[in-house]
Please model this.
Amino acid sequence: QVQLAESGGGLVQTGGSLRLSCAASASPLNYMGWYRQAPGNQRELVADLSILGKTRYADSVKGRFTISRDNAKNTVFLQMNSLKPEDTAVYYCNIVTTRGTNYWGQGTQVTVSS
Model:
């Protein structure tokens, strides 16, 4: 079993920044990603990172968010800049091990005030 520890959420004003972290208790990892879910909405992909280092971003966050990783610490980050109220959601990290097992973090609340 792999445990995921999320941190970095909080309350910020429009235009502010937050940095989310998600540390996995084990490795190796095949995939790392960030998803979010706002009230009444489906969970959606925000950004992800493949084992080969290829990144993807939702159109709504391109140019504002950056996903990165620290392989030594089995940690994935999401740097969020120029935050907007529509970014308000619970953010979840997601990892897939090399054996194909999928794990989700507990979620961290991001609230952007206007």
About this structure: Residues 8 and 20 are 4 Å apart (CA to CA). The two ends are 40 Å apart (CA to CA).
